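in:
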């Protein structure tokens, strides 16, 4: 294939990926591909991300802002800006950014409504002083903050060309730990998933796969003269001849951590790690980034039954799943793993498709995606069952979630066995003790049992677990009140026929509500219902309590707790006290029932009950003196339901 045709096919593929993102959410895509690069290309006093320093580097090579920002779009986002008036120019004659690329799920079937966008802002540190690099970082942070105020979560990571080429770059994972675990795997993800938003093309696309490191360097050296290539329009971020086995264990731990928030995606990536490790030593690279490059640019290197694909048919996520399926369907592995991968892939795809329903392109996109998945034997059976997973019984959602986490743990054990063999051969791991400690703490936070701790559910994902309707039912058994939470809207008569909709039963109503809330089952959008009730507490009391728990404890993402928090001593960071929720008589009583819900810096929730006023006040004193939790510090709230003795109760509490 001639060089020009290779470049044209790549550019067509890149444009198709952008179009996929536009089909998904046009407003978001315009923001990501037009507005963000414009702000990196400009620096003006009334534009977001402005740095009031003449030394601040900005601007993107080969970028033409007039082609992406028209008058209407400029007015929509910057109505009060004077940046584009005649006589002024917000642009630099000497751009500092060589390329701006995305990395991750944007523009693939793995994209969902909640998908953030990670960018690599690719520069040459050698062209910039340390002070200028700091200024550019500040500019990126300003754009991130402004984007967040517009409702878009983006992350701009400054990456040096030389460091990235030599695999000595600072990993974007380091803020969340595991930075030492994955260098080449992260670069493989960039090559596999990136969209070129603006700037120079990655030279990697024009380099054949399966070269040695020395062959790659020779190829790059000879490319400009042999192919008459204008090398100034490309950047060389290096090559990946293989993934060192030393990286696999750290990456394995990292995916265990990521699975706490996004298990579908982690299953696919975990399986990818196993595939890479098993293919170690084979002549042809198992990397999906190389598979994509063969399909698009080097079809002559394809082996049967593979065949070249049209640019619009290449989805990095689908190809990743296809290769993993092929790996698990070999005679050396169990076929049931392949079936499990099918399910996870399809549910992840539907998760993204569900976010697209508002788009006029949704029906066609879903139809074409399913046709491609069927052609590649990626659809699970029975398909109707999985198409309707949004309507599954809660118990089925939980059982599938348990399967996901069981798979992750089993795969972790298999990989650990492989890596122990490597250790016996004198092969170490690249992950540091620091990162192992951080990731281990996150896994313990999620799985470890402790007294009074509210357990996390091993769910498919919190978005899927959220319920539209939850019915609460109370009965009396063995002298105690027993509370049931059921999926759906029932009354006292119909609830008996729907016992299979049970979410959980508890003798502690506050614990029942809290457990559902921290696991994303009960949300602000959930309608609560109560069957025939004999308690002083009514539905409005329960709804008010649920609302204040949700307000006090925003949904925790354990995977994103910072390394600093996890390595520091545990402290309580937020507390909610619920006093006399059962509305017991206060006057003349020696008891005062109260419950305090807390969350600590590790992301663990606890519920503790107290029987007397003295115990309650002692607990508050401990929160204040040991953890600085109080109303004055705005990390403590109190809830008392309306009741006859409310004034007397408040007087007691304030005394």
């Amino acid at each position: 294939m001639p060089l020009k045709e290779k470049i044209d096919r790549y550019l067509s593929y890149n444009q198709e990926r952008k179009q996929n993102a536009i089909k998904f959410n046009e407003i978001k895509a315009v923001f990501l591909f037009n507005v963000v690069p414009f702000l990196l290309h400009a620096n003006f006093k009334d534009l977001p991300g402005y740095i009031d320093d003449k030394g601040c580097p900005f601007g993107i090579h080969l970028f033409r802002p007039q082609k992406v920002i028209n008058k209407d779009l400029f007015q929509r986002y910057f109505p009060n800006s004077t940046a584009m008036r005649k006589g002024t120019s917000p642009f630099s004659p000497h751009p500092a950014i060589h390329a701006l690329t995305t990395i991750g799920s944007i523009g693939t079937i793995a994209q969902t409504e909640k998908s953030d966008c990670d960018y690599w802002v690719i520069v040459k540190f050698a062209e910039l002083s340390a002070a200028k690099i700091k200024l550019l970082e500040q500019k990126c942070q300003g754009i991130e903050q402004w984007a967040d105020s517009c409702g878009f979560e983006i992350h701009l990571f400054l990456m040096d060309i030389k460091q990235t080429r030599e695999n000595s770059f600072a990993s974007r994972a380091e803020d969340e730990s595991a930075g030492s675990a994955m260098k080449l795997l992260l670069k493989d993800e960039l090559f596999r998933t990136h969209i070129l938003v603006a700037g120079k093309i990655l030279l990697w696309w024009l380099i054949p796969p399966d070269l040695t490191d020395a062959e790659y360097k020779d190829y790059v050296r000879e490319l400009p003269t042999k192919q008459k290539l204008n090398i100034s329009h490309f950047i060389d971020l290096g090559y990946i001849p293989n993934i060192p086995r030393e990286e696999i264990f750290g990456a394995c731990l990292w995916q265990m951590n990521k699975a706490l928030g996004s298990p579908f995606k982690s299953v696919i990536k975990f399986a990818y790690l196993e595939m890479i490790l098993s293919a170690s030593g084979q002549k042809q690279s198992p990397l999906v980034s190389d598979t994509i490059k063969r399909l698009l640019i080097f079809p002559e290197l394809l082996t049967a039954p593979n065949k070249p694909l049209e640019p619009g048919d290449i989805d990095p996520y689908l190809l990743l799943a296809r290769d993993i399926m092929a790996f698990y369907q070999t005679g050396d592995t169990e076929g049931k793993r392949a079936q499990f991968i099918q399910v996870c892939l399809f549910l992840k795809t539907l998760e993204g498709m569900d976010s697209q329903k508002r788009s006029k392109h949704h029906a066609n996109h879903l139809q074409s995606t399913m046709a491609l998945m069927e052609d590649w034997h990626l659809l699970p059976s029975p398909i109707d069952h999985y198409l309707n997973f949004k309507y599954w019984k809660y118990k089925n959602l939980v059982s599938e979630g348990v399967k996901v986490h069981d798979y992750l743990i089993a795969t972790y054990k298999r990989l650990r066995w492989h890596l122990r063999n490597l250790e016996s051969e004198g092969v170490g791991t690249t992950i540091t003790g620091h990162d192992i400690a951080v990731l281990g703490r996150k896994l313990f936070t999620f799985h470890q049992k402790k007294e009074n701790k509210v357990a996390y559910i091993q769910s498919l994902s919190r978005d899927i677990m959220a319920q539209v309707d939850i019915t609460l039912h109370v009965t009396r058994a063995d002298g105690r009140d027993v509370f049931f939470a059921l999926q759906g809207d029932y009354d006292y008569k119909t609830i008996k026929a729907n016992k299979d909709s049970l979410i959980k039963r508890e003798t502690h109503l506050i614990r029942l509500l809290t457990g559902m809330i921290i696991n994303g089952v009960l949300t602000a959008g959930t309608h609560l219902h109560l069957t025939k009730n004999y308690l002083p507490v009514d539905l409005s009391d329960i709804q008010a309590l649920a609302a204040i728990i949700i307000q006090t404890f925003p949904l925790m993402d354990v995977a994103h707790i910072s390394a600093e928090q996890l390595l520091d001593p545990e402290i309580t960071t937020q507390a909610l006290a619920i006093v006399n929720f059962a509305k017991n008589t206060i006057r003349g009583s020696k008891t005062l029932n109260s419950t305090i819900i807390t969350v600590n810096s590790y992301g663990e929730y606890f519920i503790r009950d107290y029987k007397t006023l003295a115990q309650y006040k002692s607990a508050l004193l401990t929160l204040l003196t040991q953890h600085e939790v109080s109303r004055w510090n705005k990390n403590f709230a109190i809830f008392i339901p309306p009741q006859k003795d409310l004034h007397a109760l408040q007087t007691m509490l304030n005394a």
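note: DSSP finds 23 helices and 15 strands in the chain.
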